[in-house]
Amino acid sequence: MRVLLASSELEPYSKTGGLADMTAALGKYLARAGHQVGIVTPLHRSALVYARRQAEAALRARVPARRLPRDPARWEAALEPEMRNVIAPFDWALDLPLGPLHVRASVRRATPEPNLTIYFIDAPGFFDREGLYLDPVSKAEYWDNTERYLFFAKAVTNLARYLPWQPEIVHLHDWHTGLVPLLVRHQSWQEGWSPAPKTILTIHNLAPQGRCHGSKYALTNLPPYYFHTQAAEFWGDLNPLKAGLVFADALTTVSPTYAHEITTPQYGEGLDGLLLQRKSVLSGILNGVDYETWRTVDNPHLPAAYHRDDLCGKRTCKAALQAALNLPVRADVPLFGTVTRLDPQKGVDLILGALEEMLATGLQYVLLGSGRPDLELEFADLARRYPHQVAVVIGYQPALAHQIEAGADFYLMPSRFEPCGLNQMYSLRYGAIPVVRATGGLQDSVVDLREHADRADGIKFLEPTPRALVKAMRKALALWDNPPLLARYRYHGMSADFSWERSVRAYEDLYSRVLGH
């Protein structure tokens, strides 16, 4: 099959969360399954930074140190061919309407694997910024996010229509590409695009919808008859995600439980009625884990290797993590960890509330994350008050994320809602017992003792309260005091298979159904 994916972020070029991991892995494993795959993504500044690092590493590997140019101008000239090997120019020009204006952009591309091409939309005025969606200093959304991603949706549609290899499926991700199904449908109905590809929209998180003032609808350059309650209009506003939900040929979420949850008022974010109407084309496919990256053997980020039959290296990883974060190096103290965005959705305020009580037991806790400034300050204050038990690193460091998963005994993930979640699956493979709230993908990927005594690999709780999390953490401490049972939990978790090969088969089946094969 010929499949074009579209995502606002893509690992390793740009990332704020699991969306980047999922789209990169899905594209890679679809290509390895023999399909022709393209991925469209903005050329964010971070992608150029990544390309430069790769180019510099390649240049230093190819040229002896004594022959490397010292002059900055000569260095840039020597670096240019290496840059083109990472992200190359592509003979494609975009000149697209955005309301009364026209926006020009170019396209670059990369071919990291056979059958896989990445198309970068090079529009510096929109995407050459320090952050992807937010100003990293003010933490505020960019004022022109609507313009940026409506233009991106139009660029995706342009490539889908005119690429010589003619994709059969256009697989879209979240609100940033939500307008594409409507654009494809309109151009097939009114402009003779035939045969137009089928469109599939995956909801990674229903809460962000790109909702904006109704006057922004003029930026779509679509006829006014699509701006009504059964299409792109939502309480007088333009809602790109809603447009995608209405016009896509199929809808998916990133876990089966979340696919059900979003059809209820509690999780539907105002769109549960529409999703109920489209339930026949809505399905949930659990994300996979890229075990080539998230592995405990031959992992360059870890100080020692280990596996489910020999956990000696995990003890080494725990000691190294404690030392690196200035915590007492103690094997006899349970270490809890979290790598997350600091946002109430992730339940981090529940962690703050629970730790005020649970730190009295002597446990240790480490956190890596960033997000809301008030939550960053609260975690920093907790670390200041408990310097021998709590370590907090604000930001995101890929190597440290691996080290926390490997060094932690337990992993806290008390999300209020979690469409899929990946860290609980990383934790299972790394032997960190996940303590999770039973929602979304957490419900689908972690097995509690009450569900299956012979396959239990984690601890679940229901109520999104600090008290419920405290009870779950006390269960973790009871498990810590029972080493044989703890070892069984770890063995089951490290044996769990969430490989992308399994997830890709589910997407292949979906694509075939949508195409009528």
Beta-strand proportion: 15-25%
> Do you know the CATH topology of the largest domain?
Rossmann fold
What is the share of helical residues?
A: 25-40%
Mean pLDDT comes to: 95
CATH architecture descriptor text of the largest domain: 3-Layer(aba) Sandwich
Major sheet: 9 strands, mixed
Q: What is the overall number of helices?
A: 18
**Which class best fits the helix and strand makeup?**
alpha/beta
The CATH H-level superfamily of the largest domain is Glycogen Phosphorylase B
Which geometry do the CA atoms define? Answer: globular
Number of strands: 17
Short description:
This protein has two domains: 2-43 and 108-288 and 503-515, Glycogen Phosphorylase B (Rossmann fold, 3-Layer(aba) Sandwich); 312-498, Rossmann fold. 40% of the residues lie in helices and 19% in strands. It has 18 helices and 17 strands.
Describe the structure.
There is one protein chain. The chain is α/β, with parallel strands linked by helices. It folds into two domains: 2-43 and 108-288 and 503-515, Glycogen Phosphorylase B (Rossmann fold, 3-Layer(aba) Sandwich), CATH 3.40.50.2000; 312-498, Rossmann fold, CATH 3.40.50. The protein has 18 helices and 17 strands. Strands 3-4-5-2-1-6-7-10-11 form a nine-stranded mixed β-sheet, sandwiched between helices. A six-stranded parallel β-sheet has the order 14-13-12-15-16-17, with helices on both faces. A two-stranded antiparallel ribbon has the order 8-9. The chain starts with a strand and ends with a helix. The mean pLDDT is 95.
